[in-house]
Design brief:
globular; single chain; alpha/beta; 10 helices; Rossmann fold
Length: 254
């Protein structure tokens, strides 16, 4: 049984608007759902004439349409403020379009319960949102369906296992400021995103502000992680390095 979200006080206020922050809010996890991810006939991403603006604000995305096929590697580019991160939040169902619809396979994203999203989406942002708790808690966020073996598997995959087990309390080490470098924090973010083995990964400018050696390691991890998944990324540099199948440019309105 998942622990109440209140047990995981977040260290970063942005976490509450993050995919995982919304999934683990107490009022969400206590709500039962008959939804089953097996309802999906495929994991394509479809935008049909989608428009969006924030409350009382100007239109950010207007009449956007595209289709991303299963296991396709796609990078979104565009000027700052064009709406690329907003587009990701629409895919995740954190925002609702003002017009049009967004489909994941045969299901409208607005019908996917938050409690099921972690099984479908892995979301990696530029900054990792820590919660108060242990290293294990950073990965599981209190979800008891995720085993110790699951945690160790993804932490080994991203290359942090040796560092963690050499800490006095290993995976039970309480996370404090400066325990992880910026690059290590980004690897933790990838581990958190991967632990539920989602078929769709979203990467939002995740190699920004990293040194070249750390970036090289993260790129290697992402290449392996994305080999059997639909991979969506926001980054000019990442599109070239990851050899994406397609680039979609989001034009800034106005």
């Amino acid at each position: 049984m998942t622990k109440p979200f209140k047990d995981f006080l977040y260290l970063d206020s942005d976490f509450v608007s993050d995919l995982y922050g919304q999934i683990f809010q107490e009022e969400i996890i206590e709500k039962s759902s008959n939804f089953n991810v097996e309802k999906f006939d495929r994991y394509e991403v479809l935008f049909e004439n989608v428009s969006f603006n924030y409350k009382d604000g100007p239109t950010i995305l207007k009449n956007i349409s595209f289709k991303i096929t299963n296991k396709e590697n796609v990078t979104f580019t565009g000027r700052t403020g064009a709406g690329k991160s907003t587009l990701f939040k629409l895919i995740l169902g954190l925002l609702e379009p003002k017009e049009g619809r967004i489909m994941i396979g045969n299901i409208d994203v607005k019908h996917i319960p938050n409690s099921e999203k972690r099984k479908i989406f892995g979301y990696v942002e530029q900054s990792f949102h820590f919660v108060k708790g242990t290293i294990k808690d950073q990965i599981t966020l209190g979800d008891d369906n995720i085993s110790n073996e699951d945690v160790e598997k993804v932490v080994k995959f991203v290359g942090l296992h040796d560092y963690v087990i050499n800490l006095e309390n290993g995976y039970d080490t309480t996370v404090e400021k400066n325990l992880f470098s910026q690059g290590q924090s980004q690897l933790l973010s990838i581990a958190r995103a991967m632990v539920a083995n989602p078929p769709i990964m979203l990467l939002d400018e995740i190699t920004a502000n990293l040194d070249s050696e750390t970036e090289e390691h993260i790129i290697k991890v992402l290449k392996e992680a994305g080999s059997e998944r639909t991979l969506l990324s926001i980054s000019h540099r990442l599109s070239a390095i990851l050899k994406c199948d397609r680039v979609i440019t989001i034009e800034k309105i106005g």
